[in-house]
Amino acid sequence: MPKLIIDNLEVTVPEGTNVLEAARKLDIVIPHFCYHKALGAVGSCRLCAMMFLEGPVSGVQMACMIPAQDGMVIATNDPEAVELREHVIEWAMTNHPHDCPVCDEGGECQLQEMTVAGGHAVRRYTGPKCTFTNQDLGPFVQQEMNRCITCYRCVRTYRDYCGGEDYGVFGSRNRVFFGRVEEGPLESFFAGNIIDACPTGVLTNKPFRFKSRSWDLQEAPSICPHCSLGCAVIPGGRYRELQRIRAGVNETTNGFFICDRGRFGYDHVNHPERPREPRIDGQPASMAETLAAVRTRVQDLVQKHGPAAVAFLGSSRASFEANALLREWATQVGSPHLVFEAHQGRDRAARVLAARLGEHARSLEDVRQSDLIVLCGADPLAEGPMLALAIRQAARNGAQVVVIDPRSVKLPCSATRLPLASGRLPEVLKALSQKDLSAFSRQERSVLDGLAAQLESARQPILIGAADLLAEAGVTALCAAATKLSTPERPVGAMVLLSGPNSYGGAMLTGAADDFDTVLDAIQEGRIHALVCLSSDPFREAMAPARAQAALGHLELLVTIDSTPTLAAQRADIFLPARASAEMAGSYVNNEGRMQAFLPVLNPGLPISQTGAGNHPPREFFLQTPGSEPEEDWLILAQLLESASDLATIRQRLASSDQRFTELPAIAPETPGIRMSGSGQLPPAPPSELPHCTPSDTLTLLAVSAPLGSHWLAHLSAPLAAQEPQPYVCLHPEQAKELGLNAGDRARLITHLGHCHVVVKIDEMMVSGQVMAPQLMNTALEGMLPGSVLDCRLEREVQV
Amino acid sequence: MNPYPQVLFKNRRPGETILLPEYEKTGGYLGLRAALKMSPEEVCNLVKGSGLRGRGGAGFPTGLKWSFFPADQPGDKYLVCNGDEMEPGTYKDCQLLLADPHQLVEGMAIAAYALQTSVGYIFLRYAYEECSQRVERAIAEATAAGYLGRHILGTGFDVELHVHRSAGRYILGEETALLNGLEGRRPNPRSKPPFPAQRGLFSRPTNVNNVETLANVPHILTHGKLWFQELALNVESAGTKLFGLSGHLNCNECFELPLGITLREVVEDFGGGVRGGKKFKACLPGGASTPYLTAEHLDLMMDFDPLEEVESRLGTAGVTVFDENTCMVAVTRNLNQFFARESCGWCTPCRDGLATISWLLDQIENGQGTEDHLAMLHGQVRNIKGRSFCALAEGAMGPVEALLRLFEDEIKDHIRKGCCPFV
Fold it and tell me: Does A84 touch chain B (CB under 8 A)?
């Protein structure tokens, strides 16, 4: 642990820490452009110059490039160092345009800050400036190359960290250009990170362009609601509109970056069809009236049909607190029907995970440090994008990556691949843990034998799956494999991607209840008369949508609490508008079991862009903010329960009532979060009619989620919805040949759900025998619930 | 004509390239044979003892560099010859390779043995296509004769050499940028440490030497270190040096001369004196990145240490002479334009600082300069020198800093008169 002195202050830092970070520990800000903790030090901008007075190096040196060593004495304000920093800023500003007043970066521009801090006010250079022609980089990133100061952060982020290949450095001297070979949308799913990485206004957020100055934005630390990884984000709102999201920092989870789904998936909060008023039987009512109506009607039904006549459906995207209060309510009513996910497969997978994950749980940081990553039935880009980046970092450090999947799983790194039908995934996990691979073909064994050996020798192996394809049997097998392959000296980690930001929390709250299909049966049979839906949509999410729709039609009372325009919200007898996560405080429990707190960014209200029809100020005035009725989901439930209605008390009560949640009151925003202790309950034995793979000569269709188009909140966000793909299916070239299909052909996909038109994609990494179709909202493929396996036919359509 | 012993140029004849039989007749590959009878450490020590210093510009002792190389580390290691000769005023490696390329091949085989590397790359400037072809032919001849390839000369040692043609920028002469270029990456320099000897080409230990340096090695092996030391006129130095003359001289040619020869002798006896009977004003002693020498330095020894004592450098010994009618501001502007153009764009002082200097010298030369510009020029030099990522900008500051040191009056004259006094 080297001990050094910076500006007369002593600091001790871990071995390998650079001087810039050591100074940061003393709250000494060392100016810099090119240095970034996640991207490392490259010494290109020369702004972090410090005077090294004593110790192993001497003279003016770059703080980022020098590892802190014992005996160093460093002065940040030495005249020589200050003079160099002034020059670096002057050089950086030589060609920079005078457009701060109209630049979107203005106010959060590192160059602006450094220029002001460095005292550079007059440009001595009076010659012509270098100028560039900008490129259209697609819908998310706006380029303005004239502002570039050539810090190389964007390429280091895009290429090195994120593994993108279509953006790079061109030219030399003071004509260095950062961009694509030719104009076109950036291909990486992490492209938005270059917006955060750029220290000035070269790369800015295109959908956010000209909307707000950064100082006018309200920001607060939050947790991304778009998948189960729980990445730290910082949403920004203004004029009652959530206008953008940037990456937050949590070195245990996402690190410094986020995916484009998280970054551009803010717009569901502003959705024009978002239900914002409480309703009773289709008529607007006050919140108080509506709450009273819910209480009365539920009580009436309980009195009439007994407590089991009311069912409760929690949510993977509602706050943990709301879900916990829903459980309290169910307990209070005495109903045994409490389910936290309408999708049966996902529900059971999450419950198995919560019951069995235990000490095998691994964070994204653990993945980054791992040396062997086995992805079995997980497609990170679709199911948890930041996992793909974490895997890439491990691979950059030499980790081996093995992918066992029926799909052609796209990763930003190279991997060993074994295409295997979805039904065989649990089998392969079992075989690996029992070290008996005899059931596999020679070709398959060529990958599996190597993997088995690697699993023996790896230092920090992690098995990674996902709820959709693995389902209950697969998650069970994955956790069992982690246990079986672990030794006390060499534990094996596990990670399973779940469906939502609070799936794990819901699973921890679930008791021995049956799954939602049983609830549907009971509704169908008239045993359940009322359903309370918290931020979930059984009409869309239940495994057999047609059956669900029929059954739900029998309900006497449907109560829906939500912040989005779901079918359940539309069809509810009583509707209670909830706030989106960016509008409230609360917590989510990510797929590792990590409880993370988030804070409100803005208050709910109809965006002024909507009320003013583009004009500002609005021409109509109200005493109350229009559209401001949504309340925190936990507050709605607390009021229904007529219990304490402040978050601290609620967390305290949950902590004292269930010892697994003891740490809940201790969680705070902008911290790594705290992993839940204890485990959940296993679901009862699976029902006989689980989705199956028919060994017939018909094709099987595997429904999966896609990076864009399958996720409800992302689908409601306009910038992302515009990028959703057209319906397609993907299959192996041999399969395509058999069916007489070519890439790009239009085809008719026929399943028992009906038929629809799709485009054919061909990928040789697909397993043969299975056709993959993504669930795509608002298209003919909307009914393709991820994880389901259906018989199908595929017919080529003749072009007219 | 040239009274001094010829070592590297002994087989040089206009328009000819020596082939293997003639090279062997004049003692070729005896050095390699001698080396293979010694242990690698002995070869290393011999080169160290000979006093051979790098001929690429920096003058670092070659044997010392070799002694840092982890020759006994297992796994791939590389030897790289830096033939990216692109400094204005420097053309000696080209002359050497055109005349007698086997010296490089033999030198690399010996170095490979001394450093226990079995793969060598010869990285040549894009414009040296003729050299590349001749070196390739020499490699083919040497391979056929058993000097290269598997089990060279019946020993258990393997060497293979490859010629790589550079994509053609000055920065590729910087050894770490060269390694990036060789790997197929953008040729930005790498940070040191780690040095190439620890982590070089493809992240493996790599030794990089200049063409002329490696070409000297066979002769040291053949004739011994004392012979080599006695070649120099300066007792503290060793060997001969290829001097490439250019500029306002009557005879602009490349000569092999002993280290320690005076600048006057180079200019007057070999360069034939300043063109048109004019007076000698200044010269670049060793390529575009070396600070100027003036008439007062004419009796200095052209060698590494004596030139450093007068704040200049021997560099590559590419001597460019300027006569009394030359505007040194214009010369410096021209040189600086080259460096500004060749900056790779990695670090700010080089990328934007050199461009700023170009602009300032433009202003002064064009008669628009002010005292503020002069002060700004001083500031640029102060903050580029020693502050850039690699040696490119450092080298670029050589002539600029010398201009300010030696010819400040001339700059002030420009400012006072509002035009260039030499036009």
Answer: yes
Q: How far is CA A28 from CA A11, A84, A113, A251, B277, in A?
A: 11, 18, 15, 21, 63
* A3-93 and A352-498 agree in CATH topology: no
Please name the residue ranges forming H helices in A674-797. 712-715, 718-721, 733-738
- The whole-angstrom separation of Cα B67 and Cα A247 is 49
Domain positions in chain A: 3-93, 128-270, 352-498, 699-796
Choose the closest CB to B186 out of A92, A125, A169. A169
- Architecture of A352-498 per CATH? 3-Layer(aba) Sandwich (3.40)
Q: Is A138 on the interface with B (CB under 8 A)?
A: no
Give the up-direction half-sphere exposure of residue A610: CA atoms within 13 A in the CB hemisphere. Answer: 17
Domain A699-796, second-level architecture: Beta Barrel (2.40)
> How high is the mean pLDDT in each 10-residue block of chain A (800 residues)?
96 96 95 95 96 96 96 96 97 95 94 94 95 97 97 97 97 96 97 97 97 95 98 96 97 97 97 97 97 97 96 97 97 96 95 96 98 98 98 97 96 96 95 94 94 96 97 96 96 97 97 90 96 96 86 96 97 98 98 98 92 68 89 97 93 95 96 95 75 60 95 97 96 93 94 91 92 93 91 84
CB contacts of A173 in chain B (<8 Å) are 340-345, 351, 354-355
3-state DSSP of A602-670:
CCCCCCHHHHCCCCCCCCCCCCCCCCCCCECHHHHHHHHCCCCCCHHHHHHHHHHHCHHHCCHHHCCCC
Task: Give the one of A42, A92, A175 whose C-beta lies nearest to B348's C-beta.
Answer: A92
CA distances from A433 to A356, A357, A484, A486, B1 (A): 16, 16, 6, 10, 84
Q: Which CATH architecture has domain A3-93?
A: Roll (3.10)
